[in-house]
């Protein structure tokens, strides 16, 4: 009654990827094009560039020109001293031209505004890199979450199918008084439990696919499966050395440092508002307009001036603004410390998890071999009446559980390795290509 198990397990282990399937790089390209967070990061870089241009433009010469054409009509009617009505009308026409130029000579506020805008632009650029790294990790994580959910569902359905065959066989044996009715009930109970788990697993497949769709805005199709034979290698080097690499190369931390510099420059902006401001002004005015019974005369005026503005008192506004900027700087520094600690945790966790996954894969493979041998021995012993149906069920459950665990730990290795590369700031498209080559149907 157990002759079909070897073939069934082989079929479980030889899941072939569909002919038309999406690989990791295809999904990654879709995410690059449609991920809203990456798009927002790009817009922030453009905003930073524009802010820098605004700050720079404030320090450059400001030139303004204006012109005016007017016609004034004056009418004088009868007055008490006039014996006859008199109607006197006069028109005054004229044009007016004005050109002015101003240039800041000494304005520390504008200088620190420009410095702050440059640092903010660099911060946004680094945040864009960090967002790209995060997207790479999300694509890998969610891609293999789908594969695991599908594998988990596949093995559960296979287990349910096997249990159904066991139930039919047990019912036949019970009819022949070879097994007890309790054995039949036990198989039925296990079958119902597996069917309930299958329903939950089907839900998890849908959830996993929607999670990937969040990045690409495209409903995931069939995905390439992972190859069965992959050389899982531990990460080399000491953990302390990798933590040092993370602190120097991680773009999130580098962006936070730029944020601190920008916040410090913001403090200097408000400090400098207590200082004198010196600017040069030049203007030229040409007019021939008449006004208030005065005949139009041509006149030209040229003005050159140096203006000095010294802030004395503003009701405490500038002091409050400077204190606010100092508190924002302190908050940014505290946030930097939090990100450093999180980065150390991420590097440590991913480093340890990646290397532990290699050992777990080897151990789980041995456990699978042992589970298969144990199940085969239990089947043989059952045929001689030395084991019960409950022992057979336990062997089957163990074998399928180990199959699911092996699939999970293989995917976990890949996800943790990419997470480690992201934490160290060394993740590139080459890592995506490497992982993609581990998929079935693709050149290794």
Structure description:
Helices cover 66% and strands 13% of the residues. By secondary structure, it is α+β, with helices and mostly antiparallel strands. The protein has one domain: Outer membrane efflux proteins (OEP) (Up-down Bundle), CATH 1.20.1600. Helix 2 crosses helix 4 (108-175).
Spans with pLDDT under 50 lasting ≥5 residues?
1-19
Q: Determine the strand fraction and express it as a percent band.
A: 5-15%
Integer-rounded radius of gyration: 39 Å
Main beta-sheet strand count, sense and barrel state: 4 strands, antiparallel
Please identify the top-level CATH class: Mainly Alpha
**N-to-C span:** 41 Å
At the fold tier of CATH, the topology name is Outer membrane efflux proteins (OEP)
CATH architecture: Up-down Bundle
CATH superfamily name? Answer: Outer membrane efflux proteins (OEP)
Number of strands: 4
Which class best fits the helix and strand makeup? alpha+beta
Characterize the overall form.
Answer: elongated
Mean pLDDT: 86
**Count of distinct structural domains:** 1
How do the strands of the widest beta sheet line up side by side?
1-2-3-4
What is the overall number of helices? Answer: 10
Keywords:
444 residues, alpha+beta, Outer membrane efflux proteins (OEP), 4-stranded antiparallel β-sheet, 66% helix, disordered N terminus
């Amino acid at each position: 009654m157990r002759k079909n198990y070897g073939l069934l397990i082989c079929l479980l282990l030889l899941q072939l990827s569909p002919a038309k399937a999406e690989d990791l790089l295809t999904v990654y390209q879709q995410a690059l094009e449609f991920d809203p967070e990456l798009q927002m990061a790009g817009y922030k870089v453009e905003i930073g560039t524009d802010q820098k241009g605004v700050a720079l433009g404030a320090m450059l010469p400001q030139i303004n020109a204006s012109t005016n054409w007017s016609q004034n009509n004056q009418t004088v009617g009868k007055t008490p001293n006039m014996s006859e009505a008199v109607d006197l009308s006069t028109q005054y026409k004229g044009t007016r031209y004005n050109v002015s130029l101003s240039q800041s000579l000494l304005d520390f506020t504008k200088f620190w505004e420009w410095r702050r805008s440059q640092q903010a632009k660099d911060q946004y650029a680094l945040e864009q890199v960090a967002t790209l790294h995060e997207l790479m990790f999300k694509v890998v994580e969610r891609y293999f979450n789908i594969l695991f959910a599908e594998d988990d569902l596949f093995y559960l359905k296979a287990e349910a199918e096997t249990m159904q065959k066991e139930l039919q066989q047990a019912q036949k044996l019970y009819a022949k008084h070879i097994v007890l009715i309790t054995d039949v009930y036990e198989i039925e109970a296990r079958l119902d439990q597996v069917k309930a788990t299958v329903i939950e697993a089907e839900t998890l497949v849908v959830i996993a696919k929607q999670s990937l769709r969040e990045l690409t805005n495209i409903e995931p199709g069939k995905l390439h499966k992972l190859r069965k034979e992959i050389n899982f290698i531990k990460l080399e080097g000491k953990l302390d050395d990798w933590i040092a690499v993370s602190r120097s190369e991680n773009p999130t931390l580098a962006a936070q440092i730029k944020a601190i510099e920008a916040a410090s420059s913001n403090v200097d902006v408000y400090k400098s508002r207590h200082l004198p401001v010196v600017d040069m002004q030049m203007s030229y005015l040409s007019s021939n307009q008449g006004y208030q019974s005065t005949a139009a005369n041509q006149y030209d005026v040229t003005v050159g001036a140096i203006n000095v503005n010294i802030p004395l008192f503003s009701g405490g506004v500038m002091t409050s603004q400077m204190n606010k900027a100092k508190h924002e700087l302190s908050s940014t520094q505290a946030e930097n410390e939090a990100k450093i600690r999180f980065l150390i945790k991420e590097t440590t966790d991913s480093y340890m998890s990646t290397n532990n996954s290699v050992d777990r894969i080897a151990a789980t493979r041995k456990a699978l071999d042992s589970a298969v041998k144990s199940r085969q021995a239990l089947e043989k012993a059952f045929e001689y009446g030395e084991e019960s149906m409950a022992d057979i069920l336990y062997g089957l459950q163990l074998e399928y559980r180990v199959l699911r665990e092996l699939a999970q730990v293989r995917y976990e290795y890949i996800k943790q390795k990419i997470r480690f590369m992201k934490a160290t700031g060394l993740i590139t498209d080459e890592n995506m290509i490497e992982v993609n080559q581990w998929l079935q149907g693709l050149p290794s």
